[in-house]
Amino acid sequence: MAITKEQFRAANARGAAASARGPIARAARYDARRGLVVLTLEGGCEFAFPAALAEGLSHAPRSKLAKIKISPNGLGLHWPLLDADLYVPGLIEGAFGSRRWMQRIGKLGGASRSAAKVKASRENGRRGGRPKERAAA
Q: Using the 8-state DSSP alphabet, how is residue 61 labeled?
């Protein structure tokens, strides 16, 4: 199915608007020692995130994480060996994948079993459950 000239113009306008909002990636690399994907943004700032947090990258071998392509407009990252794509502005905002992926990551944090968390849970149970939130005055 071919796109119309109007659809093409509209897509270009959306792309230009997204580029104007930034942030724009100019370089990307995988730091295997630290397990981080490091982005150099337009203006020279760097942003890094753990590959293990990102959808499509979490269980990937180092060799496949090392090959990263940046979209021509600098808004997307693509790992061709993994067929994984991430949106740069979303990463900066802390979105490391789809809504379902982010819900799964959130549950992992709530499911952790540290000694302090177990102790607090037991104390709350002895007191009748989780403390009620106080209404703001």
A: -
Contact in structure between 12 and 29 (CB atoms under 8 Å): no
- Listed residue (54, 38, 36, 35) closest to 97, CA to CA: 54
Backbone phi, psi, residue 99, to 5°? -60, -45
Q: Which residue has the tokens 């979490």?
A: 58
pLDDT beyond 80 at 20: no
38: β partners: 29, 48
d(CA 78, CA 97): 13
Domains of the chain: 5-96 (3.30.2020.40), 98-127 (no CATH)
3-class SS of residue 44: coil
Give the DSSP H or E segment for 70.
strand 69-70
pLDDT over 70, % of the chain:
88
Give me the amino acid identity at 60.
A
* Beta-strand relationship, 36-41 and 46-50: antiparallel
pLDDT in tens, 49-99: 999 999 999 999 999 999 999 999 899 999 999 999 999 998 988 888 878
